[in-house]
Structure formats: C-alpha cells, structure tokens
Amino acid sequence: xxxxxxxxxxxxxxxxxxxxxxxxxxxxxxxxxxxxxxxxxxxxxxxxxxxxxxxxxxxxxxxxxxxxxxxxxxxxxxxxxxxxxxxxxxxxxxxxxxxxxxxxxxxxxxxxxxxxxxxxxxxxxxxxxxxxxxxxxxxxxxxxxxxxxxxxxxxxxxxxxxxxxxxxxxxxxxxxxxxxxxxxxxxxxxxxxxxxxxxxxxxxxxxxxxxxxxxxxxxxxxxxxxxxxxxxxxxxxxxxxxxxxxxxxxxxxxxxxxxxxxxxxxxxxxxxxxxxxxxxxxxxxxxxxxxxxxxxxxxxxxxxxxxxxxxxx
Length: 313
Known about the structure:
single chain; hpI Integrase, Chain A; globular; 2 domains; DNA polymerase, domain 1
C-alpha cells in the first residue's frame, strides 16, 4: 500500500490542483504530467524511494545530468530549453508541496535555471497572413469553419485553448467583442475585426444544428447528447487545421495557432501599438512575457532603416 507521502500520489493531487485552483488548460497539465512522469520514472530506475524528504540538491543535480545525456527515440539529445521545462515542472511541484500541502521537501528556489538564449518567435508577415487566411475552400461548411477559425485567431490573438472553449453565445458579433477567461482565471476583453466577424456569421449561417460550441468537428457519427459538447472541436484538431493550411499555401515553416498569436502581437507593435496595450490584449500577467516581441519589431525597424535610410544622399 502506497504512503500518502508517496510522490506519485502527491503528483496526482498536484495535477488536480493545477486544473481546479490554477485553471490551467488540459494541454498545459498534460505537459506537466509528462515532465513529472519522467522524473518519477528516473527515481524508480535508480531505486530511489519516491518520498519528498529524499529530494535534495545532489539528487536534482544528478537528475539534470541525466536530462543532459538523455536521447529521445530519434537519438537526438534534449534541447536546453526542453531540459529546463522538466526542471521548471519539478520546481512547481516542490512549491506546491511546501505551500499547499505543508510537506517538508527541497526549497525550489534553491534550484537555479541557466539563462536561456533569446526566445525565437515565428510570425507571419502581411503577405503570408493573407495567403494563409485565403487557403480554405469555402464551398462547404468545413471550409467556412476553417476560414472563421484562422480569421478569429489572427484577429484576437487567442490561445488555442481559449478558442476551443468558446460557445456561440459568448461572442457579440454586433459589438465585435467578448470576454474570455485566460490563464489563472484572468478575464480580458477580446476584440474582433470586421473580417473575422463576417466569416463567423457566414459559418454560423450554414450550421443546421443547435450545438453550443462555436466550432464543432465533422464526422459521420452525429449522435449527441443535449448541448453538443461531444461535438466541440478540440485543440489538437485546430493545431492540425492550421498546419494543414500553412503547408497548402506554401509557408516557409509549419504554422501553429500560437504562430497566429505571435503574428497578431507583432502586427500591432509594428503598426505602433504600445507594449502595455498588447500585454492586455494577449492576457499576459507580466510585461516581461510580452517584451519578447520587441526583439521581432527591432529586427523589422532595422530592415526599414537599411532599406530607406540615406537613399536621397
């Protein structure tokens, strides 16, 4: 019989805490589960009892050495940023044990993370955005749905989890705005462009169902409980939709829903929006998270300077 202080049991409680108290998305919780599962497996492989009191700096050091030497199925080493994700998950778990469960263990603040290289942000320029948005064939309901999804992602900068949670009743197409609950239950107002509102209207106009979700999946089996929750389009499906059209229109890399979020932010900043406003529209808790986009806009300004400066001399 497992002890209630067993890390495996405590980890299960931690995932419930992330879902209920922190309101993290299922995708984020899945990542935490994946990262901590490797740590717990490493303890088992090394015959270390999975108890909170056994976690110390030496153990964490040895675990990080293991991560540095680990190779995946393709025999590729873990990138430094990926190694850090594993350690960040472990630190969050330790902080939960101390602050929420009063379980004595290693203080997570003693675990340092190396300084990361500048984060690479992939975004689309205006011509690439136009190509992507115009990729779906709009002759059927699925094509109209996909066009509405792409337009809404670029128009609002929504996270994919925020988009898939939307119901028809959530969006005010007359005022072209709605409220959305983001990470940490933070509520923000989201604004829709005229184009995005128009495509959503066109998509909903051809829907013959009364399902609540704004975006639904299409399959042969349309048997459903009241409300249509089982018909709700899932995040993974949206990711595949964006990837499909990014390849169809010949983008230089596979785009993801977050690529359109990046493109939304950079489009605003390049046009002259201030960083604080963009922070609010993205739902970032800290301005430091939004500042990653200044590197992108700085590159854009450098290109403008190089192209136009001194041409009249």
